[in-house]
Write a structure and sequence with these properties.
- By secondary structure, this protein is mainly alpha-helical.
- The protein is elongated.
- It has a three-stranded antiparallel β-sheet with strand order 1-3-2.
- A hairpin with a 5-residue loop joins strand 2 and strand 3 (86-91).
- The longest helix has 19 residues, at 93-111.
- It has helices spanning 8-15, 20-28, 31-42, 47-54, 59-71, 93-111, 113-129; strands at residues 45-46, 75-80, 86-91.
- It starts with 7 loop residues before the first helix and ends with a helix.
- 66% of the residues lie in helices and 11% in strands.
- It contains seven helices and three strands; from the N terminus they run αααβααββαα.
């Protein structure tokens, strides 16, 4: 079923600009949120390991995204009282569920890449011809 064919009751919550579920959806599907959730599916990571695993994310953005996902209940931050300090990040139960859903979307994206590339070429060809 296409999104436009979904019953209105399934769309009404996320469609609402003030709907709390919309904000959670934005957190889970943000650029870094997706990549962090997918990485944490594998295992728990320390901050610097996670930064290397995700790649191209600044410390600031990684920190902000981890805090957001922790606040939403998707990520668990385990700070161990040792010297030097050790902090591990892992998925909570609901985080594992969200990561599974995001993983499926990522796999679908990969499998649809050829079709997307063809659509881009068609679009660019039409745009160039009309200019």
């Amino acid at each position: 079923m296409k999104v436009s064919e979904e019953p209105k009751s399934l769309l009404s919550d996320v469609d609402g600009t003030m709907c709390p579920s919309r904000l959670v959806l934005e957190h889970v599907t943000s650029r870094w949120g997706v990549l962090i959730l997918i990485a944490l599916r594998e295992r728990s990571y320390r901050f610097s390991e996670l930064r290397r695993r995700v790649g191209r994310v600044s410390e600031k953005m990684l920190t902000q995204t981890l805090q957001t996902l922790e606040r939403d209940g998707f990520v668990h931050r385990d700070a161990k009282p040792v010297i030097p300090p050790r902090v591990d990040y892992s998925l909570t139960e609901i985080g594992e569920e969200a990561a599974r859903q995001v993983w499926e979307l990522a796999r679908w994206t990969e499998s649809s890449l050829d079709e997307v590339e063809k659509a881009r070429v068609r679009y660019d060809t039409v745009r160039e011809a009309s200019q």
